[in-house]
Every structure is written in C-alpha cells, then in structure tokens.
Amino acid sequence: MSGQQQTRGNNLDPWFPSYAERTSGLSASEVRALFAVASRPEVVSLAGGMPNVSALPENLIRSAFDRVMTTNGPTALQYGSGQGVPALRENILRVMGEEGISASVDDVVTTTGSQQAIDLVAKLFLDPGDVVLAEAPSYVGAIGVFRSYQARTVHVGTDDEGLVPEALRAAIAAERAAGSAIKFLYTVPTFHNPAGVTLSAARRPEILDICQSAGILIVEDNPYGLLYFGAPPPPPLRTLDAAGVVYLGSFSKTLAPGFRVGWAVAPHAIREKLVLAAESAILSPSSFAQLIVSEYLDTADWRSQIGTFRNSYRERRDAMIGALAEHLPELSWTVPDGGFYVWVGLPPGLDSKQMLPRAVTELVAYTPGTAFFADGTGRNFMRLSFCHPTPESIRVGIRRLATVVGGELDLLDTFSGTGPLASRRPRRRVDSPPPDLD
User: Spelled out in words, what is the top-level CATH class assigned to the domain 60-299?
Assistant: First the structure.
C-alpha cells in the first residue's frame, strides 16, 4: 500500500490522520449524552442542570426585546466590541455588587456564557501536560475543556465545608515534586456543581493564602452565588483578592441560558489577553443578546425575579431531600443551601454508570458520578438535579429511582453470598425531613 493510501483514514472518517493531536482529548459529555433520553416526556430527568425558565414571566423579556429593537435595532444587529457592550458591563458591576464584588467596567469581559470564559482561560494558560487543580468532584464542562487542551486535571479532596486546605497543600507538593507545571486552581466554591457544598467562610482566606504562597492563579466559577435558600453564602474569593483571582459569572442561572451571556473579571494583564483570545475565536459576543439582557437589568425588578427563582429552587430542593429520606434512606446525600444539585452516595457495590440503563428503563435519569472525575472514578456517586422538574415530578422520579436501587441491591444480595446487604448499608449523613429555611 502506498504512503498516500495509508493516510486516507478509515471507513468511519477518511480525515482521521489529518486531525491535530489535541482532538484526542475531545469526548462526549455524559451530561449532554443524557439530554436526548431525558427530553422524552415520559422520563423524569434529574440529570441536566436546566434552569426553571418557566418561572420567568415572558413579558419581561418580550418588553426588553421590543424596546431594544425600537430604540437600538441597528446596533443590536451589528458586530460589537470584543470586550462586550459597555452598558451591559456596567450592569454586570451592579449584579456582582450584590455579592460584594467591586470592580471597574474595564475589568469585565463579556463572553458567550461562562463556558466560553473557561475555554478562554484554558487557551491562555494551558500547554500540553500542564496541571489544573480542581475539586473532587468537579464541573464536567470544565474537565472537558482542560482535557481538550491536553492538560491534566488533578482532583483535590472536599468535604461538607468544600475544598480541604490540607488536601490542596498535599496536591501542590506532590505535583511540584513530580516536576509538573500547575497553572491554576479551578473552583466552584459556592453551591458547588455537582456536590452542592459551599466553601466555608473560614476556609476561603486559607485557600487564597495557599495559592498565593505557591504562586497559583485561582479561577473562581460562580454561576449560583445569588441562588441561596436561606442566609447569603460567604463572599466570593474575588472580594478577598483581586490580583490572584479570575472571576467567572453567568446569566444562564439567574435569567435564562438561551441568551448565552456570561463574563469574566480578571487582573489587567490577563483581561487584555482574554479580549484578544475572544476576538480571535468569535470576533465579538452577540450584541443582540447583550443589549436585551442589559435592557432587562435596566428596567425589570431583577432582584425580585432572582428571589422568585430562589423560592422555586428551594421548594424543589426540599421535595428532593424529603423524597430521598422517605424512599432511599440507605443512601447518603448533601443538602445544598442553594444552587441546583444534590450529590448522592450509593451503598458499596453499586455502580451509578452501569445502573443508568436500568434507570432509563424505569423512566428516570440522573448523571453518573464518573462524569465529574477526570480519571473516570466516582462510580459510587450520582448527581441529582432538582432545578427543572416540578416538585411532584421530583417525587415521582425519586420513587422510580428507589425501584432501580432496590433492584440492584437485591441482585447484589443474591449473588454476593454475604448475607443481607441491608445490614451493611451506610448510615445517612443528614437529618430528615429537610430543615425549615423560611
């Protein structure tokens, strides 16, 4: 066979030999792969983190749309600045001010969702073989980005108070001893995705001190910070350190994901490179979407609307925790004080990834824990999302999930030869029913 014939690829993809080496890091997200199944109306999806946009009155967006097109239509339909529309960046300062963040309009870079901001940061900092530190578990979308740039995600242990400082010190020491280049710590410290936990106020300055001492940048991803169910969470890391933190925000959770509007706040030198990287990728974010979001923030009672979202998600959180306590007391789980997710631990011997096909057969979907670990571990965990289904659908979904788990436990008991598994099931770590946060 000639050399020319040898480079013609395979029957599935004739261009396979031509791809860049970094494409080997591209893989399908387990969360995205579930959407096709979860979108079937008969399936109760506890998988994807889709916001409850039905709680957003349509007239708020329609009126903003009409005003933008009436007063500023040509600008909205034209190319814009690579850094983003100035009016929106001014409004982003107001939104961040709700959490105590102080910045200037020049510090803000508007992005196509915070997902693009993660990609831009990765593009600026990561060379093949570099290390990103991240919580164990961590956001699946970020893991995929880091993998696509041929970086290695090193997970750092967490507990009920979030990232464990001693584990962070140990990870840094181990990677430095191995000669690895640690480029940054990626963290979702508030209402974590997927674990639902929040980094405690006492640990936040300690985490900052560890990273400052080691010369490690922090990338703080904070899409859920305003969606608290009781008292507000501790202030973002960005409020404690402006020089060592790149802060990422998004309107996908507090308004609607369809606009695909997010932002990054970064130290001056990093910000300039973020703008250049964004321009090379997309020229400019959508002026149309930015102006509608800005008009909404100018004219609507957006703080009250966020309060409506909080009440909606708190009701759904309570429904999920109550249903877990009633139908699956043998499991363990976190009780988030905000955000979208509950992290569930399975009894020994159960595998959330292998169990998923049976769950779909029972018309309930979840996300296996393996999606949130770069090394594919986490099979004894699952993420349950309470943000989108109604409280009644959540209860139905948990009942169906209990049928699946019960069937798996029965099979394990039958074939383990070690007697009833019930005697070995772990004790739940949380109280039930859920606390009253009103």
Answer: alpha beta
